[in-house]
Structures are given as C-alpha cells and as structure tokens.
Design goal:
This protein is mainly α. The chain has a single domain, classed as Alpha/alpha barrel (Glycosyltransferase). Helices cover 48% and strands 0% of the residues. The chain contains 14 helices and no strands. Helix 1 runs antiparallel to helix 3, helix 5 packs parallel to helix 7 and helix 9 runs parallel beside helix 11.
C-alpha cells in the first residue's frame, strides 16, 4: 500500500489558489469560497495552514459580504447560506470570527427558516435538508442557535427520515449518503440523535462499501472518495464506524492520489480537484491515518478548532 503524498497535496492546493486562469479555477469561480474552505481545511489537517497569507484571505472573504449579512461564493455574487457557512468555517480555522458582525450574519441565517422548520438556501426559496444542517452548524459555531426554532428544525429533519433508516433532501426524498450526513450532523449538534434508528441506518451506510474498498452514495452507484467523508462521519456520529473495513477504505483513498503532482480524485486515475482532495484527507483523518489531524464529524473542522470555539482551549 502506498503512503499519503502530503507534501504534494499541500503544493497542489497552494497552486490552485494562485492559478486564476486555470480550468479548475474558472470552473469553481462561482463557489470560490467553498473551494477556500476545502483547501484551507486540508492544509490545517496536514499541519500546514501557516503557508498561506491569512490577512489576504480574510480581506477577500469580507469582500464577499452582502448588506443582508450573508456571503456570496465570490466577490459580486449573490448571498447563499452555503457560502456563508464556508466563510464562518474558514474564519474559525484562523481564529478570526471576531471580524464578523455576528448578529447580522446569524440574523441572515435565522431569517431563512420557514414556518415548517425547514430552511431555504437563499431568498429564492429552495428547500433542502442540506440547508437545515448548514444553518444549524453555522449558528452553533457562532453561539446563536437560540435565534431559530430548534424544535421545529429537528421535527422537519425527522420528517425526512425513510423506512430504510436514511434521510432524503425533503420528505419522501430518496435516501442519499450526503443528505444522511446533513441530517445526522444537524441532529448531533442539537442533541437529537435519539430520533435515529442507529442499527438500521448503520446497516444502510456500511452497505455503501464496495469490493474496491471505496464507498458509494446510494445502492448500485460507483464508489467516490467524497463518501469517505459523508458515510464515515455519519457512522462515527451513530457509533457504527466499526462496521466497515477501514484498511480497504484507506487503500482506496490512497489509490486516488496523484502522487506526482498532488491532489486526490473521485476514483483512481481520474482528474484531481480540491473538493475530493479535502474529502479524501478528511476521510483519512477519520481512519486515524498517521500525520493527519483529527476532524470533528459534525462540524467538519479540525477537533482543536472546535474545542477552541466551544471550550476556549
């Protein structure tokens, strides 16, 4: 089995941030804030966050702010709850949450809660359990969960639970590993995991492991490195992570590396990107791979960052 090419991955992430005209840079132009979160959190997990210019990044993030209190995916782009969380997470990495107008940001997020407890992603009203997780995670990191109706938010998430133990994007929606992470994460943060049938959901999640050792997002689909995060995090939160073959999953993630130029792809020999690089390294963190810092399965931030926010240490 190969080893994690950590140095190459660090160089790759730094290079993506500098290549403004590259194909990958243009493709994520509308969601550069998300890309910053994926790349910078990977650097922190590898103990290399110090290689970036913190002031430059913070200044750019603040330039993505809107009067509403929300943040866009890049300068001049419309605000959305998804980008707002990424900004909060990056500032948390840098211990710079104090640069935010926390009341304004949290009012923006709280204002997206609907009467039934669900959340919209932005002013246009799309509803998805992803947004429920994002709102709860964001407000929790800002110590402002009291701004929403948590009981209604939990009730809505529970209404999206299916007979197979999983969760969909809306009531009746198909169970999917990404949505399951969002729902389990939101329930974990709000202390509501008792609503989950842990054995039933654990069985559905461990069935996502295929012969190659990789994980897929739903039955009959190909494996993808990103599910090393979505599935593993959910299994950890419901205490069923021992139901999968960890060694085979480590081998699968390492096989998806570009050991020459850095970066991790969805499947072996595919093109790498920052998204899969983060989720691959985050998956290895959950698998306790040597040299990778521990990451919190609910907040998707290094454990030491979460401890600093909630316990001041």
């Amino acid at each position: 089995m190969g080893e994690l090419a950590a140095d190459k991955h660090v160089k790759y992430i730094v290079s993506v941030g500098k290549k403004k005209g590259s194909f990958e840079s243009v493709v994520i132009e509308h969601m550069r804030v998300n890309g910053a979160y994926w790349g910078l959190t990977t650097l922190d997990l590898l103990g290399m966050l110090h290689v970036v210019d913190v002031d430059e990044i913070v200044s750019w993030l603040i330039s993505c702010r809107h009067e509403s209190g929300g943040f866009g995916g890049n300068v001049g782009h419309d605000p959305h709850i998804m980008y707002t969380l990424s900004v909060v997470q990056v500032l948390a990495l840098f211990d710079k949450l104090d640069v935010l107008d926390i009341e304004k940001v949290s009012d923006y997020v709280a204002g997206l809660q609907n009467e039934d407890g669900s959340f919209s992603g932005d002013e246009w009203g799309e509803v998805d359990t992803r947004f429920s997780y994002i709102a709860i995670c964001c407000l929790s990191l800002l110590h402002r969960l009291n701004k929403i109706n948590v009981e209604k938010a939990v009730k809505y998430i529970v209404s999206c639970k299916n007979l197979d133990g999983g969760f969909g994007s809306t009531p009746g929606g198909e169970s999917h590993a990404g949505q399951i992470f969002c729902c389990v994460g939101a329930l974990a943060i709000t202390g509501s995991l008792h609503h989950i049938d842990k054995d039933l959901l654990g069985w559905w999640l461990c069935e996502r492991q295929v012969k190659s050792g990789g994980l897929n997002g739903r039955p009959e689909k190909l494996p993808d490195v990103c599910y090393s995060w979505w599935v593993l995090s959910s299994l950890i939160m419901i205490d069923r992570v021992h139901w999968i073959n960890k060694e085979k999953l480590v081998q699968y993630i390492l096989a998806c590396q570009d050991v020459e130029n850095g970066g991790i792809s969805d499947r072996p020999d595919d093109a790498v990107d920052v998204y899969h690089t983060f989720f691959g390294v985050a998956g290895l963190s959950h698998l306790e791979y040597p040299g990778v810092k521990a990451i919190d399965p609910a907040y998707a931030l290094p454990v030491d960052v979460v401890n600093r926010i909630f316990f001041g240490r």
